[in-house]
Amino acid sequence: MEGFIEHLGRLTHPETGDPGAMAALRRSLAFEPGTYAKSFPYVEPFAFGDGWTRKALYLAAGLFAEHQKHQPGWPFARALAEVKQERGSESLEQRFLALLDADEDQIAYRLRQNVRLAVEQPFDWVRLTKDLLNWFHPDRFVQVSWARDYFGGLKEEEKKEV
User: Fold this and answer.
1) 43: which residues sit within 8 A by CB, 6+ positions away?
2) Helix or strand or coil: residue 46?
3) Which phi-psi region, left, alpha or beta, contains residue 122 (left: φ > 0; alpha: ψ -120 to 50)?
4) pLDDT of 41-78, one tens digit each?
5) Domain residue ranges of the chain, discontinuous segments joined by +
6) What's this model's pTM, rounded to 2 decimal places?
7) Fewer CB atoms inside 10 A, N or C side of the chain?
8) CB neighbours (10 Å) of residue 140?
9) pLDDT tens-digit readout, 21-48
10) CA 76 to CA 146: how far, in whole Å?
C-alpha cells in the first residue's frame, strides 16, 4: 500500500504532479468505485483481486485526490476525534458511528462525508487504505480499531482539560 499512496502523492505534487489525474480521481467519486474509465490509468497498475478489494483501492484513490494531507502513523479516526473536539459537534460523532456501521452500498458515501469533515486534518492514508481492504472482515476488527482510536482520542483530550 505504501507504493500506491506514494504514487498518488506523486500525482498531486505541485510542480511535477498531474492535475488531470487528480481531477479524474475526484470525479470518480461520483460513480461506483472502479467504474469511471478515466481513473483506470492511475489505479489499475495497483489493483489486485476483484470485488471489494478493487473497489476499495478506487475509493481510496478518489478520496486521496480530495484530501491529500498525509501523516504516517496518525489514524483517520483519531483525526476525526480532533475535529469533534475542535468543533464540539455531536452530529460529527453520529456520522462517524454511521460510517462504522456502513455496508458496501453505503461505505463510499459515508467515508467521503467523514473525509470532508476532516479537511484540515492529516492522517495516514496507507493505514486507511489497508483498513478499507479489510472493512468487511467478519470480525469487524477495523471498526473496533477505529472506535478505539476515536473514543480513546476523545478521552485523552478530556484528560488534558482536567
Assistant:
1) 25, 34, 57, 58, 61
2) helix
3) beta
4) 999 999 988 899 999 999 999 999 999 999 999 999 99
5) 1-68, 70-162
6) 0.91
7) C
8) 15
9) 999 999 999 999 999 999 999 999 999 8
10) 8
The answer to whether residues 91 and 42 touch, using CB atoms and an 8 Å cutoff, is: no
Tell which CATH classification among 2.60.40.10, 1.20.1250.20, 1.10.520.40, 3.40.50.720 matches the domain 1-68.
Answer: 1.10.520.40
Q: Name the DSSP class of 148.
A: H
Q: Could you tell me what percent of the chain has a pLDDT over 90?
A: 83
Among 33, 28, 48, residue whose Cα is nearest residue 108: 33
Domains 1-68 and 70-162 in one fold = yes
CATH class belonging to 70-162: mainly alpha
